[in-house]
Structure formats: C-alpha cells, structure tokens
Inverse folding.
C-alpha cells in the first residue's frame, strides 16, 4: 500500500488511536480565521491544513520529503496555498517578521530561533508535537527492550521556546491509547511512521512479526500509547 502523506484512513477497522482532547484541527481553524498570513512547517501532505475551511490571504507551507510534497501540491495549490520545498533542517526560506501565525503538526524537530525570526512581533506559534516514548511498545515489539529518549519532553520544548524569545501561553500533554488488531496494521504503520523502527523492512523483521502475529492471535490487540503535547507561544 502507498504510504505517502499523512492520511490514516487505511487503518479503519484494523487499528485505533485516541485523539488529544484539545482538538488540534479545530484550534488550527480558529487561529487561521483571525490572521492575514500563516506558515505551516513540515505540512506532510497538507491533509490537516486542508481541513481548515477558511485560510488566510497569504498561506504558505513547507515540506521536504518529495512524496509528501507532491501530495501537498495536489491538495493545497488549487486553494491558493504557496507550497515550498524545504528540508526539516534547512533555515526557513522567508524574511524576518513574515507571518502572523506559524503552525506545525508533529514536526520532526523545531528550530525555535527560526520560528521566532519569521514571526511578526505578537505573532503566535501553535504546534501539536510527539512526546517522548510515543509508541514505545511497538518499538520494543520489534527491537526488544529500549530506553526512552526524553528529548521530546514538553517542559524542554517550553524552555527552548522561551530562550528563543517566545512567551509560552499554553502547554498541555496527554498519553493516548492505540490498538493494532492485526500484524498487517503494524507493518503499514512502521512503513509510514519510519522513526518508530528506523530502517524497518518486513524481510529484516520477519521473526519479530511472526512472534507478534502469534501474540495478537493469543492475547488480542497490541496496545501502545502515543504521547502528544500542545504548545502555543507568542513572540514578545
């Protein structure tokens, strides 16, 4: 199955995941309605942004992975969105104080200095991010016991945002239950969300997949927990 973009509809009936209580897409829509210019960093295929009914007069997105970039262009350019190719570690290709609002859903990393630079004074950064230890149970099912990397801690993100010149106005975190009802759903997930098991292929992990299949058959769904946090910060 193709794994381009961030459409997860394939999982219907095969896997479930709780959603954060704050409703990121709803927040995104409300913030977009009140600004003239906005930037969505690492938009993926633009699927989440495309749910926003009314976009600002200037709407720009960045994406660096070619398959997702193609999806974003197909979805968003007909709506007048400027789609810019930019890698996750590249400086943002925009001038200082360019945007009223900067958003990002599940960024691989955040360059807080660059975010602050492209925001106008009083502008807002809104982001839903993946917390430390997200889907740790899936990683361990494939790779064995692992230590959790705590570099995605919400408090650390807030500290880095403040150091870059932003004032954190909202910070929330939740642990959300996910279930995989068959091993095929696990395979599709690992092909799509590549950092859970770096370098994953069915061939290399066939023994672990067979063991997981037997486990699901005997015990029921594989249960894991996604970690999510919301951070909203204003440029001083």
């Amino acid at each position: 199955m193709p794994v381009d973009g961030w459409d997860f509809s394939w999982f219907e009936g095969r896997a479930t995941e709780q959603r954060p209580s704050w409703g990121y897409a709803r927040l995104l829509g409300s913030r977009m309605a009140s600004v003239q210019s906005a930037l969505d960093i690492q938009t993926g295929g633009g699927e989440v942004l495309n749910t926003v009914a009314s976009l600002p007069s200037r709407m720009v997105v960045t994406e660096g992975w070619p398959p997702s970039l193609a999806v974003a262009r197909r979805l968003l350019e007909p709506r007048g969105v400027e789609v810019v190719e930019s890698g996750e570690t590249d400086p943002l290709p925009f001038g200082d104080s360019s945007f009223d609002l900067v958003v990002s859903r599940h960024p691989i990393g955040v360059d807080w200095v660059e975010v602050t630079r492209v925001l106008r004074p009083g502008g807002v950064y809104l982001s839903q991010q993946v917390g430390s230890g997200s889907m740790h149970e899936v990683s361990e099912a494939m790779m064995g016991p692992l230590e959790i990397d705590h570099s995605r801690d919400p408090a650390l993100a807030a500290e880095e945002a403040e150091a870059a010149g932003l004032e954190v106005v909202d910070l929330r975190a939740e642990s959300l239950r996910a279930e995989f009802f068959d091993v095929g759903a696990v395979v599709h997930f690992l092909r799509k969300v590549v950092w859970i098991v770096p370098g994953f292929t069915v061939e290399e992990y066939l023994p672990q997949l067979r063991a997981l299949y037997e486990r699901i058959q005997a015990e029921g769904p594989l249960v894991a927990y996604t970690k999510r946090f919301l951070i909203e910060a204003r440029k001083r």
